[in-house]
Amino acid sequence: MNTQARFLLPLLASLALPALAQPAYTDVADPDADRKAILAMQGEYTVDFAFDETVLLAPGYERAAPQRSGGDEVVIVLEDSPTKIVLQHILVHQPTGHVTKHWRQDWIYEAPQRWEFASDQTWRVRDIPADRTRGAWTQCVYEVSDAPRYCGTGRWNHRYGASTWTSDRTWRPLPRREYTKRSDYNAMNVENRHTITPAGWTHEQDNTKTVRRADGSTERTLARETGFNDYIRTTELDFKPAYAYWEATQGYWARVRARWDGFLMQPPGLHLKTEVDGMAMITPLFTQASAVQAGTRVSDADIDRVFAEWVEPAPAQ
After folding, report:
1. What is the phi/psi pair of residue 83, to 5°?
2. CB-based burial of residue 178 (10 Å sphere; 0-12 exposed, 13-18 middle, 19+ buried)?
3. Which residues, other chains included, contact 173 with Cβ-Cβ below 8 Å and sequence gap of 6+?
4. β-strand partners of 75
5. b/e map of 56-92 (b: 16 or more CB within 10 Å)?
6. What does pLDDT average to in each consecutive run of 10 residues of the chain (317 residues)?
7. Selection from 62, 15, 44, 52 nearest residue 243 by Cα
8. Among 101, 123, 164, 304, which residue's CB has the most CB atoms within a 10 Å radius?
9. DSSP one-letter code for 35
10. Which spans in 159-311 are helix H?
11. Do residues 189 and 182 lie in contact, with contact meaning Cβ atoms separated by under 8 Å?
């Protein structure tokens, strides 16, 4: 060792900074904390929806205009068990009291399977790898008619003073805000994040708009989009119409969910014979629900006829 090295080494050692203390993070799941976070999403909210295309990925593609909307929404707990929580969203138009049954989210702890959007109005039931579902919750989101939309699997993170769940990347069909006015893409590759906040909760989306082939491969990607849905808790609005609607129709919608589950709880999944907007099923089911609310009996056969016309098992692969 030369003279310079003998001099520098002790000096450097004397100047060495102590190792930074590392947080005692743990990968041990905490289902009780997770359940508390999921259940915190119930309640009455004013909601702001914001979507912005960011990165443009296709040559010649022009960025779409930002989308802004909002509404007033109550989230009701339909089911609460140690391994499953079901939340139903219901919109209320405050000036008129008009009620619209909105989306639904089901949370399953360590789910062994989930259904996944494939293409062309088709959802297939897939096994979830054990390493991915261990300690994780699978969230499945449903259309206003309780038709499937998308699922995602991920763990809740409670480390930083706020509870956040982040999904893996999965596929979903065009959202309603898009499929009524666009046909230049047919699928979105998405990551979802839910965070419980002091004001309520938020839903962030990282979306990639894609043209997807029937075999599941990607033909091209158009753009990335960020979504931010802000659920702000309120005590100043009247949600009694939503509670009254649900009190009158919850039995009917339970029968509808049971029929969807018959296709989605086991392979191969289902194919919808409707256009992408789904109105061919939404309209008769909402009409039946309105009849039930008005006191008219809707039989199981009436529901079965709608499903027989528009839903079938997914084709073999």
Report:
1. -120, 5
2. buried
3. 117, 121, 149, 150, 179, 186, 187, 188, 276
4. 43, 89
5. eeeeeeeebeeeeeebbbbbbeeeeeeeebbbbbbbb
6. 46 38 53 98 98 98 97 98 98 98 98 95 96 98 98 96 96 90 94 98 98 91 98 98 98 98 94 94 98 98 98 92
7. 44
8. 123
9. H
10. 176-179, 240-264, 279-293, 300-310
11. no
Q: Could you tell me the two tokens for 218? A: 């990607």
Q: What single letter denotes the amino acid at residue 290?
A: S
Joined tokens for residue 295 = 């006191």
In the chain, the amino acid numbered 109 is Y
pLDDT at 252: 98
Q: CA 6 to CA 216: how far, in whole Å?
A: 63
Q: What gap in Å lies between CA 87 and CA 35, rounded to an integer?
A: 12
- Residue 191: both structure tokens together: 């990551």
Q: What is the pTM of this model?
A: 0.90
Burial of 138 (0-12, 13-18, 19+ CB in 10 A): buried
Q: What is the pLDDT of residue 266?
A: 87
Q: What is the pLDDT of residue 317?
A: 79
Residues 147, 172: contact at Cβ < 8 Å? no
pLDDT in the model for residue 71 = 98
Is residue 22 a contact partner of residue 183, using CB atoms and an 8 Å limit?
A: no
Angstrom distance (rounded) from CA 187 to CA 189: 7
Asked whether the beta carbons of 37 and 165 are under 8 A apart, the reply is yes
E-assigned strand segments in the chain: 43-56, 67-81, 84-93, 98-109, 113-119, 122-127, 137-142, 148-154, 156-157, 164-166, 170-172, 187-197, 200-212, 218-233, 269-272, 311-313
